[in-house]
Amino acid sequence: MIPLLLSLLLAWPPGTGAQQDTLMPFMENLDADSNVILKWGFSEVQGTIMFQLTVKTTGWLGFGFSPNGGMAASDIVMGGVGPNGTYFMDYHATGNSFPLVDKKQSYTLLSLTEADGQTTMTFRRSIQSCDEEDFHITVSQLPVKLIYAYGTSDDIRYHANRRGTKEVNLLKFMPRSSPPDSNYLDFVVENVTVPAERTYYHCKVMKVPKLNGKNHIYRIEPVIEHLDLVHHMLLYGCPSSVNQTYEKKCYTEGSGEDCIRVVSAWGVGGGAFELPEIAGIPIGGQNNDEFYRLEIHYNNLAQEAGRRDSSGLRLYYTAQLRQHDVGIMTTGLMVAIGWGYTIPPNAPAFHSYGLCNTSHFSDILPDPVPDLSVFSVALHTHLAGRKVQAGHIRNGEQIDFLGLDENFNFEMQQATNLGNIKTIKPGDEIVVECTYNTTNRKGITQLGLATTDEMCLAFVFYYPAIPVTSCCSHPDMHAYMAMMGKTVNQDIGEMFKTAAWDQSSTAVHEATMKTVPQIGFIIDVNKNYTMYEGNIRNMTATLSGKGDT
């Protein structure tokens, strides 16, 4: 999206309030009277999904997945707390009759309790089961038809009208809020002439009406006129030193680079983005006029001349403040133009790395630095990117992935809510690894703004917010030159351009880039920064099993 030292992502002052359920952050009422409530969370890395069904009854509970909303061909679990203890079983239905017990019990009961007139059943299963009698949950944009039923006693009989069905997208869930005082602001450009260039960044600084105190943004919607032109958009809050509106090409003198507080973002292929119900992006509450900078990256693939566009972002906000302020932090490989980082041509799977060591947050932040609850991650590369993963390291050992996309698509870049809340503790590290395919390129690829350049970033959405906007790194190129037996004052860029790249030299280059020390940079909202040295840890698909606690 953007280079680290040109545009920085905002983190806001911390909020207060209770913590969200880290294992099951999603919740949906399955009936209109809120008698049947479902909570759930999942781990795509471990391939499991956890459910908690709470029903206002002291009788049996039934829950399942149906291809059409009815009993036939559905996958069901039933359980309860009876006179002789708890009972729980995995079933499947062949028609509108009592379901049959599965030969293979694919669900694991975690707890079953009965108190205050309601029963709560917590259980786990694989997302994709190998049992032909189970329903397969797929990672898609399509919702799943959930069915439920319950009785008034532990004698499992016909449920009568105590049943229902609801469509829910379990793995791509996006909550929808409608606060009674909801309002919105539009940040759009009007009739912008897009140059006949492959890559063009357009910036507009605008003044917004004063809001009555601090508000929380809870929903972000794109307003796109030409989907084939607009690749991504970012909205930045400006400091008090910015007090005039203007519109021009980004990253030129006076184009608003002091505006570094990211308020919202959108990427190609994405739709509306709804924040968790306990957290919001702060807006308003300033004593002075507020200015914002909208940045739009146009990807004019055909390099057509004379095209015009009016696009932007619509931000829904409410004065009903939520428990936490949201922060957004850039992690990964620092886009340092001119530092010589190079991806060789004709490489089917070249790996790049970036490091964030949170133990150095205290170098520029007052103690204590809080635990950060990560609820969403947006992964980003350009055209050569094929895979991106953000590993979570604790005490030198990988414990999880904050984000993982093994089939990265440049045309589908959207922040997605994680299946469970990931906790970043002080001292944890984030390692971002990107895999590139350059077999269709004859020349080297460098880091930069253009879509034909490359990036390797993970944008981390979390709460409570801290004033860190960016935590990225870059290989120590002096150490690289020394390790490769080159003179330090040699032109690195020219050396890479004229190198005879083959499979062997590419492998040595990749390994050396990973082995040399990383120069880390942590930057806050006031452009204060600290530098440190670190090393890239190895990541594996097999995690330590310590969990994210």
Automatic annotation (TrEMBL):
Subcellular location: Membrane
GO MF entries: copper ion binding; dopamine beta-monooxygenase activity
Ribosomal protein as UniProt keyword: no
N-terminal signal peptide: 1-18
Cofactor(s) needed for function: Cu(2+)
Topological type in the membrane: Single-pass type I membrane protein
Record's protein name: DBH-like monooxygenase protein 2 homolog
GO biological process: dopamine catabolic process; norepinephrine biosynthetic process; octopamine biosynthetic process
DOMON domain ranges (all copies): 34-151
Claim: Ribonucleoprotein is one of the keywords in the record: no
UniProt-listed PANTHER family: DBH-LIKE MONOOXYGENASE PROTEIN 2 HOMOLOG (PTHR10157:SF41), DOPAMINE BETA HYDROXYLASE RELATED (PTHR10157)
Family: Belongs to the copper type II ascorbate-dependent monooxygenase family.
Entries under PROSITE patterns matching the protein: DOMON (PS50836)
One GO CC term, this protein: secretory granule membrane
Record InterPro entries: Cu2_ascorb_mOase-like_C (IPR014784), Cu2_ascorb_mOase_N (IPR000323), Cu2_ascorb_mOase_N_sf (IPR036939), Cu2_monoox_C (IPR024548), DBH-like (IPR000945), DOH_DOMON (IPR045266), DOMON_domain (IPR005018), PHM/PNGase_F_dom_sf (IPR008977)
SUPFAM superfamilies xref list: CBD9-like, PHM/PNGase F
Source organism (scientific name): Salvelinus namaycush (Lake trout)
Keywords: Copper, Disulfide bond, Glycoprotein, Membrane, Monooxygenase, Oxidoreductase, Signal
